[in-house]
Specification:
Elements: E1 19-24, E2 26-27, E3 30-36, E4 46-47, E5 50-52, H1 59-71, E6 76-85, E7 91-98, E8 112-118, H2 120-124, H3 131-141
Parallel strand pairs: 1-7
Antiparallel strand pairs: 1-5, 2-3, 3-4, 3-8, 6-7
Bound molecules: 8-OXO-guanosine-5'-triphosphate.
Residues 1, 8, 10, 16-17, 20, 22, 40-42, 47-52, 86, 90, 92, 130, 132-133 line the site of 8-OXO-guanosine-5'-triphosphate.
Length: 151
């Protein structure tokens, strides 16, 4: 969602979204990681694409919308990988996502500073990762979470 258009504006850190989604894309052993824009909550932190669920949306619809808004990617939503509640009280659903590899991400600069393809090991040692992502990566390393190969 563009900045400043809703009560959920990123600038309003006193009211974080209560429910969110995360989209996990893995291709050839690498994860699509974004660096958040300096204009949003948690500026310049690394994480996966995603965001809050808007009223009336399903989790899958929210994943599709966020991937489109942040990276202009038209994706397919796969299986639900994980579910957590962040330490700041957001109920977060993590979904596997597939893209057509010929489609290059186009960042929306108001939301995303840059994107990277990283192995889970590379991501895990980032200092500026959102905290819940360390837990996700730990479970991935333990194979408590498994990501399917792209079809
Ligand atoms: N996008 C994203 N959010 C995550 C991840 N891990 C994680 O804990 N979150 C949390 O999920 C919540 C929603 O993400 P967000 O900050 O991108 O969403 P937002 O509502 O500000 O953005 P929006 O306006 O695009 O919907 C935040 O509390 C964020 O900290 C992740 O890997 N990606």
């Amino acid at each position: 969602m563009p900045l400043g258009q809703s009560h959920n504006s990123h600038a309003d850190s006193s009211r974080p979204p209560r429910r969110g989604v995360v989209g996990v894309i893995m291709e050839q052993g690498k994860l699509l990681v974004i660096r958040r824009s300096r204009l949003v909550r948690a500026p310049l932190k690394y994480c996966f694409p995603g965001g809050s669920i808007e009223p009336g949306e399903t989790e899958q619809q929210a994943v599709l919308r966020e991937l489109d808004e942040e990276l202009a990617l038209d994706v397919t939503v796969g299986k639900k990988l994980w579910h957590c509640t962040t330490s700041w009280g957001v109920d977060l659903a993590w979904w596997q996502v597939f893209r057509d590899p010929s489609q290059e991400p186009q960042i929306a600069p108001s939301e995303v500073d840059s994107y990277y393809w990283m192995t889970a090991a590379e991501m895990q040692v980032l200092r500026d990762l959102l905290p819940s992502n360390y837990e996700f990566l730990k479970l991935l390393a333990q194979q408590a979470i498994t990501i399917d190969e792209a079809p």
